[in-house]
Design goal:
single chain, 428 residues, alpha+beta, globular, disordered N terminus
Length: 428
């Protein structure tokens, strides 16, 4: 790893990974320094009730043992002087647009990957100075103009730039070259390599592959055998090789929706509810697969004469819960449709989407004690569908008055599913 004062040799691409430090807390400190500067702060959803989890915390709070993901109750017990702040996503977006605007003044090749980080390809930005000079100016301007601390990774590709930005926080500036990889990374655990999660690392451990260096030296065919095409990527990544380009046109979906034309017109409220549950389930699953959350639910209803109405409602907090989407769709139906009038088509659309990693998810909408169970069940259902198909799991509400008519093989109660079983039946 080079000293930041050493000239960075430009060979091929030059990539910056810009990562804001404790972004939410830093934004509040920038807005009200007299109130929050150099104090232990944390952003959490349920401040008054003292429940929920810590979304992020300041470095002062971290020095006192506070960690992201800790319950508010635990955090306050550990640090009684901790200042809890409710999330303000409009404010965060304002500051995000601010530092992104500065980044785009150095290069048009800026890829936003979340509200508080982006990649920049500065290969063609020599007019602004050397890569180190650009990185230094970028860091200084963000601090001066927006009062935000950030860490910067400078490397020949996105993979190493991302890993470099994580090496020194806050206010770090780290250069990581291909030739540095062997000395700096090879003795680190496999899950240190960006893109390798805990489960993959556990599987590698069972194969006696525990460090990035061991991963680099492993036969590629063996990795492909156990991990598929990801195995080839892991071996290349262990050598610091990454060919992914910075994509300034990367866009997330503006909405996710699903509609269905009914085989016959529906009039009964319970039948409409059953279809809405199915639609909410499908849209929620697509949302979670893309690691997004939604704030607005829209209901579409079409009459037999093809007249179509749409009604929407914005939730109090972002969520990716099928249960929340279903409840809101039912409320919209009850508020805007007269029971007994025939319906030809129904649709549920999720709007105001944002990345899961940039939002405080479900801090207030579930009872705190129930949340882990709900999340675990949703995750298990999604995993079963990934493996056995979309029809592998249905909830009781989808089955109607006579569930046996919809079960092709046999009814199962519980959470186990054999390969020859076509459906898992869950009471809810």
């Amino acid at each position: 790893m080079a000293n930041v004062n050493e000239h960075y040799p430009v060979k091929g691409r030059v990539i910056i990974h810009l990562d804001m430090n404790a972004f939410y807390c830093s934004v509040h400190e920038a807005e009200e320094p007299e109130k929050y500067k150099n104090k232990p702060t944390a952003v959490s959803g349920s401040v008054e009730q003292r429940k929920g989890i810590i979304v992020t915390c300041s470095y002062t709070a971290r020095s006192k043992g506070i960690k992201t993901g800790m319950t508010v109750r635990q955090a306050v017990k550990l640090c009684p002087e901790l200042i809890l702040i409710s999330p303000n996503f409009e404010l965060y977006r304002k500051y995000s647009r601010g530092f992104m605007s500065i980044a785009r003044q150095f290069t048009p090749l800026v890829e936003s990957v979340s509200i508080d980080e982006c990649y920049m390809d500065i290969t063609g930005s020599k007019m602004f100075g050397t890569p180190l000079e650009i990185a230094t100016k970028l860091q200084q301007r963000i601090q001066t103009e927006w009062s935000l601390p950030c860490s910067i990774g400078l490397a020949p590709n996105k993979l190493l730039a991302k890993m470099a930005s994580d090496m020194k926080k806050p206010n770090g500036l780290t250069v990581l070259r291909i030739r540095d990889v062997k000395n700096i990374l090879w003795d680190k655990p496999c899950d240190t390599l960006f893109g390798i999660g805990r489960k993959t690392a556990d599987k590698l451990d069972k194969l006696n592959i525990r460090t990035i260096g061991q991963l680099a030296k492993t036969d590629e065919a063996m990795l492909v055998k156990h991990f598929g095409v990801v195995g080839s990527w892991m071996k290349s990544a262990a050598y610091g090789i990454d060919h992914a380009e910075v994509n300034p046109n990367r866009e997330r979906n503006k909405s996710i929706g699903h509609t269905t034309t009914l085989p016959s017109d529906l009039t009964a409220r319970e039948d409409v509810y059953r279809v809405l549950l199915n639609l909410a389930d499908q849209t929620g699953r697509r949302l979670r697969r893309q690691k997004l959350v939604a704030t607005t639910v829209q209901l579409t209803i079409r009459k037999p004469d093809m007249t179509t109405i749409t009604r929407s409602h914005t939730l109090d907090a972002p969520t990716q819960s099928t249960e929340d989407f279903y409840k809101e769709a039912c409320k919209l139906y009850d508020q805007h449709w007269r029971t007994g009038e025939p319906i030809r088509l129904l649709g549920v659309t999720l709007q105001n989407l944002s990345l899961l990693e940039e939002t405080a998810l479900q801090l207030d909408i579930f009872n705190y004690e129930q949340q882990p169970r709900k999340e675990a069940l949703t995750k298990a259902m999604d995993q079963l569908r990934d493996r056995f198909g979309e029809s592998a799991v249905l909830t009781a509400g989808m089955l109607g008055d006579d569930p046996s008519t919809l079960i092709r093989n046999k009814r199962i109660r519980g959470t186990s599913l054999q390969k020859d079983d076509s459906l898992l039946y869950i009471d809810d």
